[in-house]
Amino acid sequence: MIKMTTTATNNVNDGVALSVRQQTLEPKRSIGNGSTGIEDLDDDGKPRRTGSTISASAHIITAVIGAGVLSLPWVIAQLGWVAGPIALAIFSCITFYTSSLLADCYRYPDPRFGKRNYNYSEAVGTFLGQRMQMACGIIQYVNIFGYSVGYAVTAVVSMVAIFKASCFHKRGFGETSCSTSNIPFMIGFGICEVILSQIPNMSELTVLSTVATLMSFCYASIGVLLSVNKVAKGRAISIAFDIYPLSKRNTGKTTVTGVEIGPEFSVADKVWSSFSAIGDIQVAFSFSLLLLEIQDTMKGPSENKKMKMANLISVTTTTVFYALCGCVGYAAYGNDAPGNMLSGVYDPMWLVVLANVCIVVHVVGGYQVYNQPLYAAIESWSSKKWETSRFVNHEYPVRIPGFKNKKCYINMFRIVWRSGYVIVVTLIAMVLPFFNDILAFLGATGYWPLTIYFPIAMYISRKEIRKYSLKWILLQSLSGFCLICSIAAVCGAIRGISKSLANNPFKAKA
User: Fold this and answer.
1) SS3 state at 31
2) How much of the chain, in percent, has pLDDT values that exceed 90?
3) DSSP label at 257?
4) Nearest residue to 69 (alpha-carbon basis) of 236, 219, 257, 230
5) Which of 195, 341, 452, 475 has the smallest number of Cβ neighbours within 10 A?
6) What percent of the chain is predicted at pLDDT more than 70?
7) Burial 171-198, CB ≥16 within 10 A → b, else e
8) E-assigned strand segments in 325-402
């Protein structure tokens, strides 16, 4: 009993000492009453986490249901009625399984009461060593940067669509005067993100994530409604089988195998487009790089169980939406499905404008959710590098007008570096309007290591699974299958990039 009491006392003392050190690095609450009592701290000396399964689900859905959901009719068109939905289901199940493995890696060695791993790369370092941690960090942060540029391009495309819809409403369709440059919209998006980037951490993004999640449901639903409307107006759902001669097949109809090989679509084109479609599906499920950062916002104990439930809710919800958008969109547009099911659609105009507004709002929130791990990594490193610097570590309390005894905390380093980061992302998005192809490349290269390899490798290490045992072979086979799919997707993305480079990509699109 004496030994146990001494150990408990030492743990409390260590926690108090850690909390004192943390006071110079971050505020106890970014918005709150300024209390610094021990009761406001978690077991690791950091501000008490308040996240729940619902808030974690909102963060995940905000990250995973991007505007890429609007490209799923094109994906189904490349793979067909059979392979398309099956591919969605397969990658959905794989992603849920590996994300569940990852949830148990938040704490070490015990998944419920062990030491916390605050981010993905730290968990990889804990289970697999420092070299793997460095490799994971590079892949993770390069992907985050790439997604940021992709988000900026996506938002601006929707902003331009809103402008054109308004212009067409005033001047009529086909007016050349409705052409515009992307640059003013890109600057406006950058200014908005500079302001929102000052939200200090993932825990403070719950409201923004919830709004963004609702917006994603809204524009995906509008896309489905527009597709249903197109079918109802006479676009019959017809599946062409081999009993029809090729010459009688309309490329606009739906088929079991998707876009058919013919004079204008070679076997090579079919292969490359199928690879690109697989890459788009992988990108649609590439959210594992955020999971441990999201889990770090959840209230304990047993964060792993809550996170697994959040994963189940999120993956199920997104898969249903993906299947609905992809299949209904394919039924409406057939093998001629566009890369964006809302592109070129202006009827009814108010509904299309609403959908694009929802996309912009969702992308604004998703941009912040995706970048929080990168923000946290840079700021944590800087705090350790310059421990005595007030510029880096000091938080200035600012009273919030209209809220009694409520304050927010401003950090000068956070203002300067995050603003600079957003500016760089915005400038790159301006000169690379074809960045969606590069985004597909980054997503395909990041999917296998971040979503498949590292979670499986950490699980094998944690469970001490014997090499060449049946379970080890099955896990490695799953990893190998996903690696092959990722290599194919990378090849398809590289071909897309080469085609974009041949078409004057640096010209801002109107």
Assistant:
1) strand
2) 29
3) T
4) 219
5) 195
6) 81
7) eeeeeeebebebeebbeebbeebbebbb
8) 396-399
Q: Is the pTM of this model over 0.90?
A: no
What digits encode the pLDDT tens for the residues 25-54? 343 333 334 444 455 787 777 888 888 899
The topology under which CATH files domain 53-503 is Amino acid/polyamine transporter I (1.20.1740)
Instruction: Supply φ then ψ for residue 51, to 5 degrees.
Output: -65, 155
Rounded Cα gap, residues 81 and 78, in angstroms: 9
Residue matched to tokens 């009688």 = 248
Tokens of 446: 């990041």
Domain borders along the chain are 53-503
| Closest listed residue to residue 359, CA positions, set 165, 218, 229, 226 | 218
- Contact criterion met (CB below 8 Å) for 152 and 367: yes
Q: What is the CA radius of gyration of the chain?
A: 24
Beta-ladder partners of 397: 409
Residue pLDDT, tens place only, 425-450: 999 888 876 655 676 777 788 899 99
Q: Secondary structure of 318-331 in the HEC alphabet?
A: HHHHHHHHHHHHHH
- Report pLDDT for 510: 42
Q: Which residues of 330-343 are buried (b: 16+ CB within 10 A; e: fewer)?
A: bbbbbbebbebbbe
Residues 6+ apart with CB under 8 A from 225: 351
Spacing of C-alpha 345 from chain mean position:
26
**What is the rounded (10 degree) CA torsion for 12, 17, 19, 20?**
150
What lies within 8 Å, CB to CB, of 506 at 6+ separation is 431, 432, 433
Is residue 36 within 8 Å of 28, Cβ to Cβ?
Answer: yes
Distance CA 141, CA 370 (A): 10
Q: What is the dihedral of CA 75, 339, 362, 435, to 10 degrees?
A: 110
Structure tokens at 389: 């610097």
Structure tokens at 160: 């331009």
Q: Are 123 and 153 in contact (CB under 8 A)?
A: no
User: In this structure, which amino acid lies at residue 253?
Assistant: K
Query: Tokens at residue 185, please?
Result: 């919209």
Tokens encoding 292: 């441990």
Phi, psi of 410 (to 5 degrees): -110, 130
Residues 468-472, mean pLDDT to the nearest whole number = 94
Q: Are 374 and 293 contacting, i.e. CB atoms less than 8 angstroms apart? A: no
How many CB atoms sit inside 10 A of residue 445's CB?
21
